[in-house]
Specification:
The structure holds two protein chains of two kinds. Chain A is mainly α. Helices cover 75% and strands 0% of the residues of chain A. Chain B has one domain: MetI-like (MetI-like fold), CATH 1.10.3720.10. Chain B has a two-stranded antiparallel sheet with strand order 1-2. The longest helix of chain B is centred in the N-terminal third of the chain and has 33 residues. The termini of chain B are far apart. Classes of the chains: A mainly alpha, B mainly alpha.
Chain lengths: 282, 292
């Protein structure tokens, strides 16, 4: 064991210096635009436009952020994204888990047909429903549901695929024991199945978060009331509105990014695991 | 228990909500799109049924062909430029370097940021007079290379492609990396005992073992490029003079600018079919590779 471990350490220290140089260069390319965004969010145009393009701000102008929240409604946009994403995750998890339970554990003729119907959804894309939904959902165009409905519908196929795989692998003993104790099927679902599915639920939640938080095509076409706009659209509008004040734009872009970065900082292991899992089963 | 698991009411309770939601919001609209694609319709006047004429018009429409070609260029660039870089990074990290986790996180961060933020950030990077790119070229004395990156027909498509690669390199890197990490320790150990060096390890052991993930990534890279919208919508709107036009943007403009609903629906259906066909081709290609 200890020999093995030493071997691995050896490998690490023996990395060719050129490889390290290469990794550092790639890291700089990946991070530098984000560093630039953050620093220009704290500058004024004079610095950004030449006096101090890439350095740290001479004066840290946090007032740019103040303006983004007080004048550019960033708070409202963030709140809308939070509400829409949270409800999308909630409905996706609950309804997909329920359908999964019926598909995997319950005995009925159409089970396979229904499962395959959901799987068809893996091949559909949001493009193909843009116009029909735009026409069908006119009555609720001025509510957040106009985004929650499609985000949930398009998150369900992958959610069900992942959950079916996970529930099939779980033993039935707990459920059987609960049945013998006289618990009914609804109770078994909510008190035994849902808790057992927790790991996969968190995976699905992360995947759903990323796709609905970042969605643009529907958000930009369906929502015209400023009060209901999500961050993706709000930020884009703001860039147009403050086109000459780069500091404020930078502050808006940074503010829109912080929630996702925060989520990643807290859950990075889960995020990477979830994406890998989603890809294999995609 | 057997009886409870056959309880029709319970089955309905569990399945119907998801099925109805998915059916009404995803399946039915797709069928509507297929139906609309056979109509001549502007959304206001009565639609007339014209059969497959929209499709006939599409495949002879120069603009649509240009959009398709552009999306294929994006797909090709993604498969042959982006994926190899991602693979190289993943293989370096898998072999173990100092700061493996840090590098992985740094490469990955752009992936989770919304396309809208990334596109607007790159818009500023490309800004002709104050953008980071031209300012950096200027400070190196390379004034000849300064350009209106997004406003020049020669560079617009490429300028849209760079941030797409930049954003998703970390995604594919991560997928290759985690696939490689999940290869059994015994396989690696056996190869090591046989005296394989690191390069041999990568080409003879790791890459053959992660072919399923490579296939998945190729499919993502292709379908993602064919459907790309956010970045181009913000950076160029398909311009200048349609130099960076792509199918989804064309569809978007046909719906919301010129109100050609039938024509736009035909584009939507073609995008799905195109993705399906290419997915099947990639799967067939990989099946024959794996057989060898």
């Amino acid at each position: 064991m200890s020999v093995n471990r030493r071997k691995k350490v050896d490998l690490k220290t023996r990395t060719h210096p050129l490889i390290n140089v290469f990794l550092v260069i790639v890291s700089l390319i990946q991070v530098f635009p984000l560093y630039w965004m953050f620093t220009f969010s704290l500058k004024d145009n004079r610095e950004i436009f030449g006096a101090n393009t890439v350095g740290l701000p001479q004066v840290w102008r946090w007032s740019n952020y103040e303006q983004v929240f007080s004048k550019a409604n960033m708070g409202t946009y963030l709140m809308n994204s939070v509400i829409i994403t949270a409800l999308t995750i909630f409905f996706t998890l609950l309804l997909s888990a329920m359908a999964t339970y019926a598909i995997v554990r319950m005995k009925w003729k159409l089970s396979k047909v229904v499962y395959n119907t959901f799987l068809i959804g893996m091949m559909l894309s949001i493009h193909a429903v843009l116009l029909p939904l735009y026409l069908n959902l006119q009555p609720i165009m001025s509510t957040r549901w106009v985004l929650i409905l499609p985000y949930t519908a398009f998150a369900m196929p992958q959610a069900i695929l992942l959950m079916v795989g996970s529930l099939e692998a779980l033993p039935k003993e707990m459920e059987e024991a609960a049945f013998i104790d006289g618990a009914n099927i609804y109770r078994i679902f909510f008190t035994i199945i849902l808790p057992m599915l927790m790991p996969i639920l968190s995976t699905v939640a992360i995947l759903t978060f990323l796709s609905s938080w970042n969605e643009m095509m529907l958000a930009v076409t369906f929502i015209s009331i400023d009060k209901l706009k999500t961050v993706t659209v709000g930020v884009n509008d703001m860039v147009g509105k403050y086109s000459t004040k780069w500091g404020i734009i930078g502050a808006g872009l940074t503010a829109a990014t912080l929630p996702t970065l925060l989520m990643y900082a807290l859950l990075s292991k889960n995020v990477t695991k979830s994406l890998a899992m989603g890809a294999v089963k995609g | 228990m057997e009886r409870a698991l056959r309880d029709k009411r319970a089955i309905c309770f569990f399945v119907i909500p998801a099925l109805v939601w998915f059916g009404l919001i995803a399946l039915v609209p797709v069928m509507q799109s297929a139906g609309y694609s056979l109509l001549d319709w502007d959304g206001l006047t009565t639609p007339t049924f014209i059969g497959p004429q929209n499709y006939v018009k599409l495949i002879t429409d120069e603009l649509f062909i240009k959009a398709i070609v552009n999306s294929f260029l994006l797909a090709a660039a993604s498969v042959f430029i982006q994926l190899p870089i991602s693979m190289l990074l993943a293989m370096i990290l898998v072999n173990g370097v100092k700061g493996e986790t840090l590098y992985r996180n740094l490469f990955f961060i752009p992936v989770i940021i919304s396309g809208s933020v990334i596109a607007n950030l790159w818009m500023k990077i490309y800004h002709p007079s104050y953008g980071l790119l031209n300012q950096m070229l200027g400070s190196l004395g390379l004034f000849d290379m300064q350009k209106e990156w997004l406003g020049d027909t020669a560079t617009a498509l490429g300028a849209c492609f760079v941030p797409m690669v930049w954003q998703y390199i970390g995604y594919h890197m991560l997928l290759f990396y985690s696939a490689a990490k999940s290869i059994g320790e015994d396989v690696i150990e056996a190869a090591r005992v046989d005296g394989a060096n690191r390069i041999q390890m990568v080409f003879r052991i790791i890459i053959p073992q992660i072919v399923p993930m490579i296939k998945a990534c190729v499919i993502f890279a292709i379908t993602g490029s064919l459907k790309s919208f956010d970045m181009i919508y913000i950076l160029t709107r398909g311009g200048p003079v349609h130099a960076s036009e792509v199918p989804s943007l064309l569809m978007f403009n046909k719906i919301f600018t010129t109100h050609e609903y039938g024509y736009a629906s035909a584009i939507a259906i073609l995008i799905i079919v195109e993705c399906l066909v290419l997915t099947l081709i990639v799967q067939k290609a990989f099946a024959s590779i794996q057989k060898d």
